[in-house]
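Below is a filled-in request sheet from our internal design queue. Each sheet records the structural input a requester submitted and the sequence that came back. We keep these sheets so that new team members can see what a complete request looks like end to end.

REQUESTER: design group, bay 2
PRIORITY: normal
MODE: inverse folding
CHAIN LENGTH: 528
BACKBONE (tokenized):
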């Protein structure tokens, strides 16, 4: 029986030739299916290829009895329930490089069209109006382009904007001063970018952290007359806030390719003359479509031939033997990474992971990948997983070192993770206690005993009478219940930390209030 591949979104005919040539593969193209039709159809297929339209929900995955692989002919996998796919052992691959150029070119096209009001002028002309007054534009030269998210596409946009003689300022959690200097651009925080830019373009994935990154407050902080471009994902910009900012005159224009809900029709943003829009066309070129289709097709052929795939998004790859020894540490190793990632906002330069005790006898690379994933996922979200964690670290120039020693100072096993940035080093150690489960036993130089679960608060403070009380009182005022609390100090009257487990998520404004307390130096909320 040949391998059945369903293509449920429009794909380049030329790009799928690797599938057409494979003698063991049969292809069916069925685009525009609604969920019910897809639920029915998917039952018979071994592989599914999609673009951004098809919503590969948990329900679809659960109905896909034979499905072993999903190919995303493009970058964003936010239309695929990765967790469900992984749970069901379905490998997801994407094509992260094939449409970079097209998306960057589309962004520049939108930027230029926006600055010179080309769509509006063309529209008027089509309607028989020869109007040379209304459509006065602005030059790009010497203007500042703010880029939020300097990955593949963001970096290409930066290079092209420099060609337009624009100044570029960017923010990306992986952007360091050296990298920025090499690219001939400025770098700063999101706030710096927002305040400095005449045009702002976003190129991040849509994540919890990037959802409504450009919101009411962000628009208020921008220059008057700023112009906005979104060719990344709907939802990074709060569409309501954008509408208000345009109507109030704060934002002079916006060019949108992607929307919170697609298709994007009958929306009030489209009634504004300052808004130009395309229907998610960033990757819609002959070249990009051929390239992404070739990439996923090759990966599908490779996978069903038992060969390694090039662009796995969620592929687990641990031998059964090793798995039985290290599996109990999977959750802990990732949580140590997540914990550390919350302790600094600076670009990560190096990660050292030390396995002490019995663990040192095993191949722990899968745990290392898990920890690295835990660290990187703060900024990469679903773009990073155990399979591509090491690759992502390499891509962002983050060194990952694994160390082993058979002595674990009183513990049967101990995993110590160290995270280095340009100016700071943070360390956290964890273990599994026989019958008691996972514990974090050290944070920097402080000995602790924390169950790595729920909502944690890490607070640096001065060892001073009343410091703990102030924190307790403020949290009580905010109606946040403290479940557990531990303190550690370097010396009496010196630096100290509090580690609290609380019953609710601590909101950013509550953190601000804690930081404002006397003798409190740093507060980090860590959700595990
Ligand atoms: N309109 C379209 O048709 C297309 C849209 N896209 C979308 O463009 C986006 C970017 O794609 P790529 O550049 O290929 O991805 P990438 O993974 O190479 O780059 C994303 C960058 O965003 C950064 N980032 C993550 N969180 C951030 C935050 N909070 N603030 C600032 N930066 C943050 C990451 O560090 C990374 O460098 C994706 O959402 C993708 O789906 C991609 C292709 C076509
Ligand atoms: O690659 C991406 O992330 C895109 O947004 C492109 O989407 P599309 O394949 O054109 O539906």
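RETURNED SEQUENCE:
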């Amino acid at each position: 029986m040949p391998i059945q591949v369903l293509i449920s979104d429009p794909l380049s005919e030329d790009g799928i030739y690797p599938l057409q040539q494979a003698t063991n593969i049969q292809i069916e193209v069925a685009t525009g299916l609604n969920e019910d039709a897809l639920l029915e159809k998917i039952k018979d297929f071994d592989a599914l290829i999609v673009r951004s339209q098809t919503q590969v929900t948990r329900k679809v995955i659960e109905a896909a009895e034979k499905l072993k692989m999903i190919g995303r002919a493009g970058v964003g996998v936010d239309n695929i329930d990765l967790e469900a796919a992984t749970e069901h052992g379905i490998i997801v691959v994407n094509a992260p490089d094939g449409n970079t150029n097209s998306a960057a070119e589309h962004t520049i096209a939108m930027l230029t069209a926006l600055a010179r009001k080309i769509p509006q002028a063309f529209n008027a002309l089509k309607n028989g109006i020869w109007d040379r007054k209304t459509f006065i534009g602005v030059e790009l030269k010497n203007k500042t382009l703010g880029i939020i998210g300097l990955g593949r596409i963001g970096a290409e946009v930066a290079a092209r904007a420099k060609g337009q003689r624009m100044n570029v300022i960017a923010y990306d959690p992986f952007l360091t001063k050296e990298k920025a200097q090499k690219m001939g651009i400025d770098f700063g925080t999101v706030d710096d970018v927002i305040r400095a830019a005449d045009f702002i373009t976003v190129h991040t994935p849509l994540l919890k952290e990037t959802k409504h990154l450009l919101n009411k407050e962000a628009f208020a902080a921008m220059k008057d007359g700023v112009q906005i471009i979104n060719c990344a994902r709907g939802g990074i910009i709060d569409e309501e806030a954008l509408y208000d900012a345009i109507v109030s005159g704060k934002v002079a224009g916006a060019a949108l390719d992607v929307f919170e809900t697609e298709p994007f029709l009958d929306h009030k943003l489209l009634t504004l003359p300052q808004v130009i829009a395309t229907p998610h066309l960033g990757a819609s070129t002959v070249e990009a479509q051929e390239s992404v289709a070739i990439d996923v097709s090759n990966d599908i052929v490779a996978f069903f031939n038992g060969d390694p795939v090039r662009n796995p998004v969620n592929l687990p790859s641990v031998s059964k033997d090793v798995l039985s020894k290290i599996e109990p540490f999977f959750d802990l190793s990732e949580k140590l990474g997540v914990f550390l990632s919350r302790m600094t906002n600076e670009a990560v330069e190096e990660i050292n992971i030390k396995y002490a005790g019995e663990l040192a006898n095993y191949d722990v690379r899968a745990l290392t990948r898990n920890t690295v994933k835990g660290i990187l996922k703060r900024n990469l979200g679903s773009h990073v997983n155990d399979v591509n964690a090491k690759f992502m670290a390499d891509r962002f120039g983050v060194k990952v070192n694994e160390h082993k020693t058979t002595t674990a100072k009183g513990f049967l096993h101990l995993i110590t993770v160290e995270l280095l940035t340009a100016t700071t080093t943070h360390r956290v150690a964890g273990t599994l206690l026989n019958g008691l489960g996972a514990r974090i036993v050290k944070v920097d130089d402080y000995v602790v005993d924390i169950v790595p679960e729920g909502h944690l608060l890490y607070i640096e403070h001065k060892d001073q009478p009343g410091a703990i009380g102030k924190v307790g009182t403020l949290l009580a005022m905010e109606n946040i219940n403290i479940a557990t609390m531990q303190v550690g100090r370097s010396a009496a009257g010196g630096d100290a930390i509090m580690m609290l487990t609380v019953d609710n998520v601590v909101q950013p404004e509550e953190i601000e209030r804690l930081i404002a307390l006397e003798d409190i130096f740093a507060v980090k909320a860590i959700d595990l």
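SHEET NOTES:
- Residues 74-76, 96, 99-100, 103, 148-154, 171-174, 203-207, 209-210, 231-233, 257-258, 280, 282-283, 379-380, 383 surround NAI (ligand 1) (CB under 6 Å).
- The first helix runs from residue 17 to 21.
FILED BY: M.R.
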